[in-house]
TrEMBL record:
<dbReference type="GO" id="GO:0007166">
    <property type="term" value="P:cell surface receptor signaling pathway"/>
</dbReference>
<feature type="domain" description="Ig-like">
    <location>
        <begin position="28"/>
        <end position="70"/>
    </location>
</feature>
<keyword id="KW-0732">Signal</keyword>
<dbReference type="InterPro" id="IPR013783">
    <property type="entry name" value="Ig-like_fold"/>
</dbReference>
<dbReference type="InterPro" id="IPR036179">
    <property type="entry name" value="Ig-like_dom_sf"/>
</dbReference>
<keyword id="KW-1015">Disulfide bond</keyword>
<dbReference type="InterPro" id="IPR050488">
    <property type="entry name" value="Ig_Fc_receptor"/>
</dbReference>
<dbReference type="GO" id="GO:0009897">
    <property type="term" value="C:external side of plasma membrane"/>
</dbReference>
<dbReference type="GO" id="GO:0006955">
    <property type="term" value="P:immune response"/>
</dbReference>
<dbReference type="InterPro" id="IPR007110">
    <property type="entry name" value="Ig-like_dom"/>
</dbReference>
<protein>
    <submittedName>
        <fullName>FCGR3 protein</fullName>
    </submittedName>
</protein>
<dbReference type="GO" id="GO:0004888">
    <property type="term" value="F:transmembrane signaling receptor activity"/>
</dbReference>
Length: 109
């Protein structure tokens, strides 16, 4: 399933990540999807703070590490997602975690 990395409300632009692990890592073939008000064709993508070449698409598979955000005219800029290009990562499920939750950690390389 798709998991938002922000608990923001439905009227806020959401940047969703698949597979749903945090941090996202490049060799996982990460797909980012922008959800928000307005049409998918109106999506503007940013990588490391700069307008980026995937304009007009609501989703894509990441091919470069970096920090990504998307903008939808009806609901604004999403929270950022960082995709790492590291060889070894300790990951947690990409969901809101509360004190007392049982969490599965994954060490992957």
């Amino acid at each position: 399933g798709w998991c938002p990395l922000s608990p923001a409300g439905a009227l806020t632009t959401q940047l969703l990540v698949e597979p749903p692990w945090r941090p996202a890592v490049l060799w996982d073939r990460v797909t980012l999807t922008c959800h928000g008000l307005g049409t998918a064709g109106a999506t503007t993508w940013y990588k490391d703070g700069q307008r980026w070449g995937q304009q007009g698409r609501d989703h894509f598979t990441v091919t470069e590490g970096g920090t990504y955000t998307c903008d939808r005219a009806g609901s604004g800029l999403s929270p950022p997602i960082t995709v790492l290009d590291d060889q070894l990562v300790l990951q947690v499920p990409a969901r809101v975690l509360l004190e007392g939750d049982t969490v599965t950690l994954s060490c992957r390389g």
